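[INFO] parsing input record for Iron(III) transport system permease protein
[DEBUG] input buffer:
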Amino acid sequence: MTSATPGQLALALGIAVFLALFLIIPVATVIYVAFTEKGTNTFTLVNFLDFARTDLFIRSFWNSVYVSAMSVVVASVFALPLAYITTRFEFRGAMIIQTLGFLPLIMPPFVGAVAMLLLFGRNGTVNLLLNDWFGFRIPFMEGLNGVIFVQAVHYFPFILINLSAALRNIDRAMEEAAQNLGCSGFRLFRRIVFPLAMPGYVAGASLVFVKVFDDLATPLLLNVKDMLAPQAYLRVTSIGIADPMGYVIAVVLIAMSILAMWVSSRAMRGKDYATVQRGGGGLAKRRMRPWESVLAYAAVLLILLLVLAPHIGLLLLSFATVWSFSPLPDGFTLAHYGRVFGESFLYVKNTLIYATLAGLVDVVLGTAIAYLVLRTRLVGRQWLDWAATAALAIPGVVLGIGYLRTFYGVQLPDGTPLATLWIVIVLALAIRRLPYALRACYAALQQISVSLEEAAENLGATKMRTVRRIVLPLMAGGILAGFVTSFATAAVELSATLMLVQSNADAPLAYGLYVFMQSAAGRGPGAALGVIAVLLVALCTFASHLIIEKSQKAKGAGR
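[DEBUG] output buffer:
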C-alpha cells in the first residue's frame, strides 16, 4: 500500500463529487424538505405530526410492516425445505432445484403480479378449478394477501441462497455429536442445525423485508394503494413535488430500511456461530428412506410449481388471444410479439443504452473506489466505500423524488429542466446498482497480490502503467461480473425510473412493462415484453456465472 499521489487525490475528489451530486445531495434534499415548514423554510416537526395524525398514512405504514413481515414468513416456508433437503440429503437434481429456485429474481415482481392474478386471482385458473370441483375459492390475491404472495414468491431466493450457503458451512461433526446424544429429526434441526445457520437466514430475511417494504410497482398493479411506497409516489405525482408529505414518507422509508439492517446486525451480535470445520466433519449426506423421498419430492415439486408460476403465466399470456374467466387461454397467437418488435422495441433499445451506460459508470467507479481503499493510504478513503454502499439503504422511490426536487430547478440554456433529460435516468440507475459492481471489483482486487504491482514498479513501470497492464487485466473477471450484475438489475429497475420518465420516447423497458400492464388490452404485448425482459436478464445472469467460472479456472491454472 502506497501513499496517495496527486492523481489519486484528484480521482478520490472526483468520485466524492459524483457521489455528493447524485446520491448524498438528492437524499439530503428529501430529508431537508421533510423537516422544513412549507413557505418559511424553517425547521419543524409539524410534517411528521401531520403524518402521525393521518389515518391513511398510519394504516399504510402498518400495512407495509405487515406485508414485509409476512412476506418473510411465507418466503421462509418456500426456502427452508428447499435449502435443507438439497444440502442435507442425497437428493437427485439438487443443483437443478437450486438453479430453478433462483429464477424468480430475474423477473420484475410487478410483472409476476399480473401473471399471478391470472393463475391465482378470484377468477384465475386455480380458483376456477376449485370452484368447479369443490364449490369454493381461496383469496390468494385479495388485497394485502396478493402483495404478500407475489413478494414472497419473487424474493424467497434471497433466503434460499444465503441459508443454503450457511448450511453447507456448518461442521457436520456437531450434528453427529447431537445425534449420538439422542437428538434427531425436527429436534436436531430446531436445536442444532437452524441456530448454527442463523446468520445466513437473517441475512436473507432482512433483504426480503427491505425489498418488500420499498417496493412500489407491485402494490400499485394489484390496486393496493394503502402502503407507504405507493403513497409516496401518489403524493408527489398527484399533488406535486412541493408537497412535503411525500418527503416525510420517503424519510420513513429510509429509516425503516436502516432499522431493518441494524436489527439484523444486532440480532447476531454477541453470539458465537463459529464451527471447527467449514462444511467438514463426520456426517455425509444422508440417504432418504423411500417414504421420505416421496414426501421430499412432493414438497419440492409443489414449491417449485408455486415459485415458477409467474414465469408459466407470463409465457402463456404472451401467446394468448383472450384469457379471461377460463383456466387457460382461449387461443394462441404471435401478434403480441409482432407488436412489441414493431411498435415498442424502443423500450428495449432505451434499456440497452441506459443499462449499458449505468453498468460502465458502475465498474469504473467500483474499480476506482476499490483501488483507492485497498492500494492507497488516502485519508478518508473508507468513506468513499461507505457512501457508495449506502445506496443499498435508499429506496428507489426516494432517489426518484430526490432527483426531481434537486434537478428540476436546474435549467439548461434552452430552459429545459435537467431532471427531464434521459441521462438523469442513467445516473439514477448507476447509483442504485453501484454497490453490486463495487463489491465485485473489491473482491477481485483483494485476490491480487500487491507483490505483482511492486515487481512491475521495481522494473521501471509507472503507477498508471502498472494499473493498466497488471491490475486491470487481473481484475477483468470481477469487473465483467460487476458490469453484468449492474446491467441485469438496472434493466428491470422501475422504482426510481417511474418518477423520472418524462416522455414515452425516453422510457426504458420496465416503464413500458408497467404502462402495458395497466390495462387488460395491453397485457398481451406487456407479457411479450416481459418475456423479452426475463430472457435479457437470464442471459446476463448466465454470462455472469460463465465469467466468474472462467476467472476461477484461470486463477486455479495459474497457481
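[INFO] The chain has two domains: 64-226+289-332, 335-554.
[INFO] shutting down worker
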